[in-house]
Design a protein that fits this description.
It catalyses: L-fuconate = 2-dehydro-3-deoxy-L-fuconate + H2O. The chain has 460 residues and is of the alpha/beta class. It is 42% helix and 13% strand. The chain has 2 domains: 7-147, Enolase-like, domain 1; 190-432, Alpha-Beta Barrel (TIM Barrel). Helix 1 (77-86) packs across helix 6.
């Protein structure tokens, strides 16, 4: 298989062969979402949604940059930024044209650094940092080709896409030949599906009514607004107090009626036996899925829960650390819904592996989103899956929350409960310069003023 994407993915403005990456600039960007309890759940009661953000700058002279980020929830973002900084020597000086033609070369180099790999391997802070850098390369490559990333991927030669996947540790479940067959078969009818995507968008569900810190009045108002906006599924956070969860589920079900899907999300709160007992207790409200019922690493625990709570589906993935754990969840029949995350694993390359694994096992992918910019990213992965891999949106929805999109140059657009297909080149990852200046921590305008206004302790 050739490492080159071939003419079908090469745009007229690919960087000159001599152009190099000359800077990897990083930023610690934080938003004070804890003050309105946006994002609050049973395990994370006061998140400040944050991005360890980077910009790849080149000397190509075309004005194009690669933007990427890891998502965190506040403190610790400085650790994530430091991890991205540690990867800088692998990126500086690299040929821009070679990176855009074969992002997999950089992915393998970053994952293969033996001393940094020791901190994983392929998990945790370092792996998320790798994902941020790799995603920035894909952003740059799609911009250079003049296409949104979903289309860049959908137009790519299947053999080249297979060359971007690391099959180490997953070949017992998915071989390169099987992946090529899936992608080749997925091209049939591609043009018609692309037309449908552009006309109708991709189905979404919303978590916006369901944050654990919201009052019943706010839950009801936002749930009813979701219906008015065309959503056919909402999600509620659960897991802190059973009586409270029963009351909130009853409130939500009364607000949306019996025909709207209502998922619930425990954010890893429970032991296996608690998850079974708690989910059964919420059964009267007809939950569509129980999300993250226990530790994301407990493959057999998820399998036990799934067997015990059916017909309620089991969903997980936003904290699954790599393709290897996803492989095991699928092999064990432990999940009904796979929830990949654009920034948790090693970037687009590894998410291609995860999409292919899900297709191989026939399990629908409903990505985790929300956060800072995750909606912007995952829409591209699901749209590629629909257009050029599985060819279906049946039982597939992308999570949507309604905050922080205004900080991006190409924010998501929701219409009648569907994500509109992005048309701008790239991965939709680029933040507005004024947002970076305002919310960089601790010296951005917002945080500098906020810290200055904090009451000072008077020495005894």
């Amino acid at each position: 298989m050739s490492p080159s994407p071939g003419p079908s993915t090469r745009g007229p403005s690919m960087p000159a062969a001599a152009a190099r990456v000359i800077a990897v600039d990083t930023y610690d960007i934080r938003f004070p979402t804890s003050r309105s309890l946006d994002g609050s759940d049973a395990m994370n009661p006061d998140p400040d949604y944050s991005a360890a953000y980077l910009v790849l700058r080149t000397d190509a002279g075309d004005g194009l940059e690669g933007h990427g980020f890891s998502f965190t929830i506040g403190r610790g973002n400085e650790v994530q930024v430091a991890a991205i900084d540690a990867l800088r020597p692998h990126v500086l000086g690299r040929s821009v044209s070679e990176l855009c033609a074969d992002p997999g070369t950089l992915s393998r180099a970053l994952i293969g650094d033996s001393q940094l790999r020791w901190l994983g391997p392929e998990k945790g802070v370092m792996h998320m940092a790798i994902g941020a850098v790799v995603n920035a390369v894909w952003d740059l490559a799609a911009k250079a080709a003049g296409k949104p990333l979903w289309q860049f991927l959908a137009d790519a030669d299947p053999a080249w896409l297979v060359s971007q996947v690391d099959f180490r540790y997953i070949a017992d479940a998915l071989t390169p030949d099987e992946a090529l067959e899936l992608l080749t078969r997925g091209r049939a009818g591609r043009a018609a599906r692309e037309a449908v995507l552009r006309a109708e968008g991709y189905p979404a569900y919303t978590t916006s009514p369901g944050w654990l810190g919201y009052s019943d009045e706010k839950l009801t108002r936002l749930a009813q607004q979701a219906l008015a906006d065309g959503f056919t599924q909402i999600k509620l956070k659960v897991g802190a107090d059973l009586a409270d969860d029963i009351r909130r589920c009853r409130t939500a079900r009364a607000a949306v009626g019996p025909d709207i899907r209502m998922a619930v999300d425990a954010n890893q709160r429970w032991n296996v036996d608690e998850a079974i007992r708690w989910t059964r207790a919420l059964g009267e409200f007809d939950p569509y899925w129980i999300e993250e019922p226990t530790s994301p690493d407990d493959v057999l625990g998820h399998a036990a829960i799934r067997a015990a709570v059916a017909p309620v589906k089991v969903a997980t993935g936003e904290h699954v650390q790599n393709r290897v754990v996803f492989k095991q969840l699928l092999q064990a029949g432990a999940i009904d819904v796979l929830q990949l995350d654009a920034a948790r694993v090693g970037g687009v390359n590894e998410n291609l592996a995860i999409l292919l694994l899900a297709a191989r096992f026939g399990v629908p992918v409903c990505p985790h989103a929300g956060g800072v910019g995750l909606c912007e990213l995952v829409q591209h992965l699901s749209m590629f899956d629909f257009v050029a891999l599985t060819g279906t949106t049946e039982d597939r929805v992308i999570e949507y929350v309604d905050h922080l999109h205004e900080h991006f140059l190409d924010p998501v657009e929701i219409r009648r409960g569907h994500y509109r297909a992005p048309t701008g080149p790239g991965f939709s990852a680029q933040m507005r310069p004024e947002s970076i200046l305002q919310y960089s921590y601790p010296d951005g305008a917002f945080w500098a003023a906020d810290l200055r206004d904090q009451p000072q302790e008077i020495p005894a």
